[in-house]
Amino acid sequence: MHMTPPSEPTKRAYQSTEQRQSATIEAVVHLCSKQDPSTLTTTRIADEVGMSQGALFKHFPNKSSLWESVAGWVAGQLTDQVFGIADRHEQADQALEAMFLAHIGFIARHPGIPRLMLGELQKPGNQPAKRIVRQTLALYRQKIVALLNLGIEQKCITPTIDTEAAAVLYIGAIQGLVVQAMVGGDIASIEQTAPRIFKLFSASFRESAHDPKE
């Protein structure tokens, strides 16, 4: 008689838990595109996933832990997708452009993320999700500054650039583009506008990269 190894039920249960957690995180991101994240209830989230509120709390003990997991997912996706695309380019200026466009594309596919991140940053205190958002933004700035410094070494970016200010402007361009699209109710349009915005931004660091007197 064939008997199932004792480890298999445990493995299946573990996979089921991960799948439910993943589905819940995706549901939160999706719901945030439709309504203010602060108004989301665990009942609404559970309904979206198709489970009871009690079952939801088996995977996430409280709402804070769920928001922490969602913030962690966003941070991981940015690192894997956006940074990963930048790392495919040897030239820093090309990497900066690729990262900018990839980030905009990521937001276009997940329009609930800006609302979620802004909502967490506006909350009082220092909750785990808020710390993750802050850490992600700090890591993002570091990535931009590193690419700008690399571009200076490669002589494709002007050596007189203020890298810290440029990083703030870079992130601000993305945030401004997203906020305006949200106000206009047309988040999908940001992918068409993004190349023009980056062209204006890049003009500031490419214009004098090569001094004709040299």
Number of helices: 9
The level of helicity is: over 70%
The main sheet comes to: none
Number of DSSP E strands? 0
- How much of the residues is beta strand, in percent? under 5%
Q: Could you tell me how far the N terminus lies from the C terminus, measured between alpha carbons in angstroms? A: 83 Å
The H-level CATH homologous superfamily of the domain at 66-206, spelled out, is Tetracycline Repressor, domain 2
The CATH architecture classification of the domain at 66-206 is Orthogonal Bundle
Mean pLDDT across all amino acids: 85
Q: Note the overall shape.
A: elongated
Output the structural class: mainly alpha
DNA-binding region: 41-60
Domain HTH tetR-type: 18-78
Keywords: DNA-binding, Transcription, Transcription regulation
Pfam families: TetR_N
Q: Outline of this structure?
A:
Keywords: DNA-binding, Transcription, Transcription regulation. The protein has a domain at 66-206: Tetracycline Repressor, domain 2, CATH 1.10.357.10. The chain is 75% helix and 0% strand.
Strand and helix map with partners:
Layout: H1 7-32, H2 42-49, H3 53-59, H4 63-86, H5 92-109, H6 112-122, H7 128-154, H8 163-184, H9 190-206
Helix pairs in contact: 1-2, 1-4, 1-6, 4-5, 4-7, 5-7, 5-9, 7-8, 8-9
Q: Any key phrases for this structure?
A:
disordered N terminus, 214 residues, Tetracycline Repressor, domain 2, mainly alpha, 75% helix, single chain, 9 helices
